[in-house]
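Field reference: sequence -> structure
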Amino acid sequence: MSAAMRRTSGNEIVCVRAFVLIPVVAVCLLTLRAALLLYFYSGPLVSVVLSTSADTAAWPTGPAGGAGLLDRVLSLRSIEHARPRQPRRRPKDEAALFAVHVRRGDPTGDGRPPGEVERLAAQRLARDDGAEFEAGDERRIVRAHFVYENDLEDPLDPVEIERWLGGAPGADVSRLVEASRRTERDAVGEAFDEFSGIYGAAVKTRAIRWLHESPPTYDRAWVIEPDVVYAGRWTELFAFYASEFPAHDLVSVNSTHSTGGSAWPHAAACTLCAEGDGRWQTAFLPVFRISKRLASAVIEVLRSNLTGHHEALLPTVCERLSWCKWTSISHGDVYRYRPLITLEEAERDAKPGRLYHPVKSAEALRAFARVEV
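Structure field:
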């Protein structure tokens, strides 16, 4: 064989080898791509493999006229939809603290079961326990707690308290938070005596201290008296202020002007108000929202033996702190200290989505409840 013929034969062999190897390499690369897609995007691929025969007809067909697995993988042009789903964010806790005195007997002397208004009010809050709502870019979940001061003469046990509250908080007795005057006085000092108000009640001090000591999942809390009625679901009110005033430390009625300034009977007893530049504020607090950092600041002030009625000291602490933001509640309709709201007034003035105080009659409470949207 001549040298020219040998060269021609060698070239033909190289061409044949290349002709054979190129498809093999291509098949290997395509197989690798398919394997990677199977590994990273198994969700969409499973839906492809399990598609019906009608869906199969829409796929590109291979040489044998059937839709092979490789053909299906190769037809997946865009894989944006196949990105793994982001885990659902855990909602933040929105504490709602129902501040109540439980008691035996019939203090009204009219034969009605004791605590009828408190029971109805507790049940209205308990139905919102676990409710979720959106506020801006975050979700929140209502966690109802019941801060109670027990009957001093004949204390009730936890089972009796649950029954007294009409089944709230149910099986989760950890939602029951006991308050006692002796314990709160030991916790914050003698400043408790003035801070607790004219009735010496421990429930609001305990509610604020509970928030101060609460787990990190809580960053604020609503404190609600049992004679406050919201004509709707409490979650609606919480969601409104969470959306409109998400970073405010105090949400309550600003009563500084209506109390008459220094003429207010409790003004002189506020030792914090008299210090520094003498600026002081008052807030009407049948229902209010307080941040954890403000609750901690209030506890610190009390432990330093500065004091004042809670409706003066709490907003004044906020006023003195450069970072503290306060907005007034705007949902009040018939919302006052006295006189008590009568049944006739409730039936005449009830409007959905409004706050009412003071409601001491179960009949009046039911009248407000009937106007819920």
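Note: Residues 3-8, 41-66, 76-80 have pLDDT under 50 and may be disordered.
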